[in-house]
Each structure stands twice: as structure tokens, then as C-alpha cells.
Amino acid sequence: MSEPGRVVPARRRGLADEVADRVRDAIFGGAYPPGAQLREVELSEALGVSRGPVREALLKLEREGLVRSEWHRGAIVTTLSDVDVAELDSLRSALEQLAVRLVVASASDADLAALDEVVERMGRARDEHEMVRCDIDFHDAVYAASGHRRLIEAWQAIRSQVHLFLLTRIGVNSEGYLASIPAEHRRLASALRARDGEKALELFAVHRGQALDVLTGK
């Protein structure tokens, strides 16, 4: 028991965090698709660690919404339900509208250049999973350019789930995806650079809507 007025030193969790990073990367790279089981024994052997850090890592990923626990299957990669898809889309819309308005109002030239850099990387993406990572990086840059700390934190709270949303989208239909995404984001960046708030909001809404339409079969 700690003495009154004293803070107990935190337990180091570096290994669990590293394991979480490795498993997250594997999910985002397509090694574990939605619905795939994440077995502690197999992961501990593959990563060369004990089951303790793996268990902690899976709990971390569960808090991110990337993993879910089922009593008869253990930890599995989240499969987004129709409700999940609708909620993520509506929340992302609310956050993104604020971010766009803030970027248009006050983003620096360096902030806008960061968006252009991601768009250039999109043009070199070798596959759909790399393109999804670039897509998320682009939106990271938009939120960073907003300069709104709590908004950035709100985005970080759903970032992994949005990544999963986009992975689910390419799993349903990836036809034309690699060819169209760089041009879409180039238009988004151009509207922000032009400080055209209405145009930017319209383009971001269309961009979100295209992914939603694929997932909802519209």
C-alpha cells in the first residue's frame, strides 16, 4: 500500500506496447482480416515473448476498437456491424467538419505542405493496404493542421477503427481504388490550400460518402 501523498511508480509497459504495435501493423497489413482469431500462444511464439505482454497488448487493441473478445473464441479482429459503420461515419463527419473549418481558417503553409507530401506518397502506393495507410496519414495531417489539441485526441480515439473501416471497404470492393484515391485527395488538399471552406466541406463529404456507399451496398 502506498504512503499517503505519494505516487506509486508506474509499471513499465514498453513490451506490451511494442507487441500491440506489431499486431496492429499485421492487422492493417492484411495478415489478420476482420473476424480472424488472435491466439495468445501463437502470437507469443511468433513474437518471441511470454503470453503476459500479448494479453496486455490485446486488451490495448480492444480499447482501440480493433479487437473484440468472444467467450467461445477469445480475441478476434473486429468485424464492423452496420451500426458500427453508421456510427463511425457520423462521428467522423462531425470531427472532420470542424477540422476542415479550422484548417481553412488558420493552417500554415507548412501544414498544407504536409498534406501535399502525403498525396505524393499515395501516387507511389504499391497495393491497397499501403494506400489505406496513406489515406489515414492524410487525415492525420488534416487534424494536425487544425491546431486543436482536443480534436486531434478525439480523432486518435477512433483512428484505428476508421483504418479498419477503410480496410473493410477495400475488402468489399477495391476496383479502381488505387487509381482514384490519389486524385481524390489531391482535390481535397487543393480546396484546403485555396481556403475554400464550402468546397472543401463538400469534397470531404463526397469522399466519406463513397466509402460508405461501398460498405452499405448503395
Automatic annotation (TrEMBL):
<keyword id="KW-0238">DNA-binding</keyword>
<dbReference type="GO" id="GO:0003700">
    <property type="term" value="F:DNA-binding transcription factor activity"/>
</dbReference>
<dbReference type="InterPro" id="IPR011711">
    <property type="entry name" value="GntR_C"/>
</dbReference>
<keyword id="KW-0804">Transcription</keyword>
<protein>
    <submittedName>
        <fullName>GntR family transcriptional regulator</fullName>
    </submittedName>
</protein>
<dbReference type="GO" id="GO:0003677">
    <property type="term" value="F:DNA binding"/>
</dbReference>
<dbReference type="Pfam" id="PF00392">
    <property type="entry name" value="GntR"/>
</dbReference>
<keyword id="KW-0805">Transcription regulation</keyword>
<feature type="domain" description="HTH gntR-type">
    <location>
        <begin position="13"/>
        <end position="80"/>
    </location>
</feature>
<dbReference type="InterPro" id="IPR000524">
    <property type="entry name" value="Tscrpt_reg_HTH_GntR"/>
</dbReference>
<dbReference type="InterPro" id="IPR036390">
    <property type="entry name" value="WH_DNA-bd_sf"/>
</dbReference>
<dbReference type="InterPro" id="IPR008920">
    <property type="entry name" value="TF_FadR/GntR_C"/>
</dbReference>
<dbReference type="Pfam" id="PF07729">
    <property type="entry name" value="FCD"/>
</dbReference>
<dbReference type="InterPro" id="IPR036388">
    <property type="entry name" value="WH-like_DNA-bd_sf"/>
</dbReference>
